[in-house]
What does this fold into?
Amino acid sequence: MITSPDAPNARVRTGRKKARTTNRFAVLLTTPTMVWMLLFRGLPIYVLFAIAFGGVDPIFQLPFPVWSPFDWTTKWMAAVWSNLLGGDSAVFARTGLYVAIASVGCVLIGYPLAYFAARCAGRWKGLVLMALVLPFFISYLMRMVAWMNLLQTDGYFNAILNALPFAPHDVNWLVGNPVTVVIGLTYGYVPYIVLPLYAALDAIPQRLLDAAFDLGANRASVFWRVTLPLTRPAVVTGLFIVALPMIGDYYTTNLLSGSPSTAMIGNVIDNAANSSGQGPQAAAYTLLLLIVLLIPVYLYARYQRKGFGQ
Amino acid sequence: MTIAQSETSATAPSVPRGVTDRNGPSAWRRLIRRPVFLAIFAAAYFVWSLGPVLAAIFMSFNEGRSRSQFSGLSLHWWLGEPFGNPTGSLFTDPVMLQAIGQTFILAIGTVLIAVPIGAAAGIGLHRWRGPIAEGVNGFLLATFVLPELVLAVAMLSLLGHLFTFIPLGTGAQLVGLISLQICIPALLVRTQYASLPRNLEEAAMDLGASSIGTLFRVVLPNLAPSIIVSTALVFANVVDNFVTVSYLSGSSETQPLSVKLYSSARALPTPELNAAVTLLLVLTLVVLAASLLIAKRLTRTGELASTLGRL
It folds into this structure.
């Protein structure tokens, strides 16, 4: 009876105040990263625009950026665009093809592995997981160099093939061979997809599977109707995790093939960025790639949150 | 999932273990029900993924010049003169020694800056909701999946035309690497924070702890696993990095071991290259093992794998 009418309000008010100070503290903690990201992630993209729509110094062949959008020239963008429709269209199609095959290959190899580690490894689980985590820490370069050793024309891989009666003999794997590049891409990126798939499979509660079995489902239908639907977000996220970086890959083809016949978009950008006078083209290509990738990146961010719900 | 549970799911649910009567499933069906195929597949994958690496390590002890034909054990690609020959060996080549030093400088510098800043952001982003926080989060996720080449060309343009006070070389490389790696502690810490029970902090606050007190005495100790894992991962990533680092290296003196490797991989095929990649591997594994030892009480391997998978 004597409780003041203010009391509940007062509690709400202090509650809000507490929430606000927590929030302010959170903002404070995030600020260094936020500033860093603006300076070194946001700003560089504007500089890319300024160069891609800017000019080239006629004497020194150096690109000079044009900061005001009103003075921008679309000359370089148009040149890059016509290149894409003309001479470079094969490179574009090839990149898409390689990335598609290698990404699907990564899922087809990664899913059974993750499944094995999460469900069937039994007492070997620790060891299996260790072997899955290890390639994460082994340099990409190291793994590529390792294959380069084996794939030399006089290397052990050809030695094995030569010993088999119906296999191709003395194959030249390391010069302009698209099969090597696609397998190399798959090999290089599989470790990045296994762990997201493992995390998703490991998060499925055992009682869900038991319930499905109790209701009369066999192993195949439990997989198709319970396990796979529950891990679909992780499969999609995993596809993004391997496919997006792969689109800008130039080193795998450089190391495993080194031939223009297997060049990808990344090689076009890398070559332009390393030759003088082609700064605007490199910037225009990079910008174009960035814009094309924005939609998949957005989808990835959405799926990522959905998959591991907040 | 415990081991006992995973074994029941691995064998047939209706047939008790060890029961093999004639009316039971045929041998073929039992083979299918046991994960034999999966086990063979996994074993084949491990041979495929780790075999070549082991072979490459072995080749660094080759006596001959070849990286594909083994002709006898020798340490001369590692240690040089007293063991024989030759032109280049890892630990006597001044160029290589300088590159190793540069690798260390970059890795330690990046860890020291990126991990604290990123981990703080991970904690902040867990609590802070709103469009700006979403934006920061989006930038972090985009950094994680965008091709490194895109980010490297953009960074080169920035340092070349706007931030000209940062000359290409160690400083520029550090800035580029930190921008690239900051997302790892931030995303890992944020994910682990989301899985912590919420009432932990509320209890601390109710007992009178301040925001900062709660952060240091309750939140941080609970987030230690993800911070340690991200430290190891950032270190490993920097040791391996060659895209950003080669774009932002000013001269050949600031090229770390990975860049030397990449540029000589197709040009100079001696086992010295294998010795160098082996050294990179050993460096990374030592850091990984150390961080696992520190985190041993805090994590199981399963947790580690799950944590990495949630990136």
About this structure: Chain B touches chain A through 105 residues (CB under 8 Å). Chain B has 15 helices and no strands.
